[in-house]
C-alpha cells in the first residue's frame, strides 16, 4: 500500500518514520523521507481544493494586514505550513471556523495588532474561542489540534522573546513550547512511530506562563520601548550628559 492510500495522516507518518528507522537515519534515507512526505502533502492538498482556497483566502487577508516585509514572510511561511498539512483534516474537506481563528492567532506577530500591549489578551480570547467552537460544532481534527498548539507556540514565543524583559521568563516560555515538541520528535524518530500528544495537564505550565507574560505586557506603560535598549542610547540621557547633568 502506498502512502497516498493510507487512511490517515497518523498512519502515513508512522510508515514514513518506520522507513527512516529501518534505513538507520542515513542522509539518503532522510532525503527519501522528505520526498515521500512532500508528495503525500501535495496529494492531500489537491484532494481538498476548498480547504486550500479557504487557507489561501485567510492568509491573503493577513498578508494585506502584515506590518512589514518580515510580517509578510511570517504569513507566507504560515500558509506553506498549512498547505503541507491539510491532510490532517482527515475526513473533512474544508477548514472549520475554529481553524481560521487558530491561524489568525498564530499570525498576530505579523500584524500591527501583535505589537499592541493588550494583544496577549486577544490571543487568549482567540484560544478560548477556537476550542469552544471546535467542540460545539464537532469539528475537532488533528489539523485543528496541531494548528492550535503551533499558534500558541508561535505567538507566545515571539511575544516573550521580543517584549519580555525578564530573561528567566523568556527562557521558561521558549522551553515550555520547544522542549515538548523536540521530545516528541526525538521519541517518534527513535521508535519509528509518532507518540501520543502530552495530556492537557502537562501543558498547564505553558498556559500559566502565557497568562503571566500577557499580564506583564499589558501593565507595561511604554509597549513600544525595547527592553534591550541600552540606557546610553536613550535621547534624554545623552542630552543630560552633554549638559553636564
In words, what does this structure look like?
This protein has one domain (7-224). It is globular and about 55 Å long. It has helices at 9-22, 27-46, 49-65, 69-84, 97-106, 119-136, 142-163, 167-191, 204-219, 235-242. Helix 3 (49-65) runs antiparallel to helix 4 (69-84). It is built from ten helices and no strands. 27% of the residues are buried.
Secondary structure topology:
Blueprint: H1 9-22, H2 27-46, H3 49-65, H4 69-84, H5 97-106, H6 119-136, H7 142-163, H8 167-191, H9 204-219, H10 235-242
Distance between the termini: 79 Å
Domain tally: 1
From the helix content, strand content and strand pairing, which structural class follows? mainly alpha
Q: In sequence order, what are the helices and strands, one letter per element?
A: HHHHHHHHHH
Average pLDDT over all residues: 80
> What is the beta-strand fraction?
under 5%
How would you sum up the major sheet? none
Radius of gyration, whole Å: 21 Å
The portion of residues assigned to helices is 55-70%
What is the molecular shape?
Answer: globular
Strand segment tally: 0
Helical run tally: 10
Extract low-pLDDT stretches. Answer: 222-245
Amino acid at each position: 500500500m502506498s502512502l497516498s492510500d493510507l487512511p490517515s495522516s497518523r498512519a502515513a507518518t508512522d510508515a514514513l518514520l518506520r522507513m527512516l528507522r529501518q534505513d538507520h537515519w542515513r542522509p539518503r534515507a532522510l532525503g527519501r523521507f522528505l520526498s515521500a512526505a512532500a508528495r503525500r502533502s501535495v496529494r492531500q492538498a489537491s484532494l481538498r481544493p476548498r480547504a486550500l482556497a479557504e487557507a489561501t483566502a485567510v492568509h491573503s487577508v493577513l498578508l494585506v494586514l502584515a506590518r512589514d516585509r518580515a510580517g509578510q514572510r511570517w504569513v507566507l511561511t504560515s500558509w506553506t505550513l498549512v498547505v503541507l498539512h491539510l491532510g490532517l483534516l482527515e475526513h473533512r474537506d474544508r477548514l472549520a471556523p475554529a481553524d481560521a481563528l487558530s491561524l489568525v492567532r498564530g499570525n498576530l506577530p505579523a500584524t500591527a495588532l501583535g505589537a499592541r500591549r493588550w494583544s496577549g489578551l486577544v490571543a487568549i480570547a482567540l484560544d478560548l474561542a477556537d476550542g469552544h467552537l471546535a467542540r460545539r460544532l464537532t469539528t475537532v481534527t488533528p489539523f485543528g489540534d496541531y494548528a492550535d498548539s503551533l499558534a500558541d507556540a508561535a505567538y507566545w514565543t515571539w511575544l516573550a522573546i521580543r517584549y519580555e524583559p525578564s530573561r528567566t521568563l523568556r527562557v521558561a516560555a521558549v522551553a515550555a513550547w520547544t522542549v515538548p515538541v523536540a521530545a516528541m520528535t526525538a521519541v517518534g524518530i527513535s521508535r519509528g512511530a509518532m507518540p501520543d500528544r502530552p495530556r492537557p495537564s502537562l501543558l498547564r505550565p505553558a498556559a500559566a506562563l502565557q497568562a503571566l507574560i500577557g499580564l506583564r505586557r499589558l501593565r507595561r506603560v511604554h509597549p513600544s520601548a525595547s527592553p534591550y535598549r541600552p540606557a546610553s542610547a536613550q535621547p534624554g540621557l545623552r542630552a543630560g550628559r552633554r549638559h553636564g547633568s
